[in-house]
């Protein structure tokens, strides 16, 4: 067993290649083989969001605080709030982030396939974000 003490691992700023705005990531667990679960806490400032992306084995989001959005192709983004859980099936193109006026923090749980948890696509256009 390992206990990772609160604050013992550094918070990282999410890459601007795959995120828009101020997004911070805190590690929760990268399980060792043969387990494949990967879990992080992600904090989005208002207007911040991921780029479009997919997950090879899907993803669960659990909203901890704030008000956020989750978007699919050709659909208006949906509001997500603290306590909400979202399941995104494998290969479904989507994005997630904060709203214009509120920050949002979620736990993201996904599994690695051949060492990869996501395939990144283009940034989300303002016209799709504000839809
Ligand atoms: Mn995702």
Characterization of this structure:
The model has no long low-confidence stretch (mean pLDDT 96). The strands form three sheets. Strands 1, 3, 4, 7, 8, 9, 10 and 11 form an eight-stranded antiparallel beta sheet that branches. Strands 2-5 form a two-stranded antiparallel ribbon. It has a two-stranded antiparallel ribbon with strand order 6-12. The N and C termini lie far apart (46 Å). The chain is 3% helix and 47% strand. It has one helix at residues 126-129; strands spanning 12-13, 19-20, 23-30, 37-44, 49-50, 53-54, 59-72, 78-81, 85-88, 94-98, 104-111, 119-120. The chain is mostly beta strands and 131 residues long. A hairpin with a 5-residue loop joins strand 7 (59-72) and strand 8 (78-81). Manganese (II) ion (MN) binds at residues 53, 55, 59, 88, 94, 96.
Gross morphology: globular
Small molecules bound in the structure, each named once: manganese (II) ion
Order of helices and strands: EEEEEEEEEEEEH
Strand content: over 45%
**How many β-strands, per DSSP?**
12
Give the rounded overall mean pLDDT. 96
Q: What is the C-alpha radius of gyration, as a whole number of Å?
A: 14 Å
Alpha-beta classification: mainly beta
Fraction in helix: under 10%
The low-confidence runs, each spanning 5 or more residues with pLDDT under 50, are none
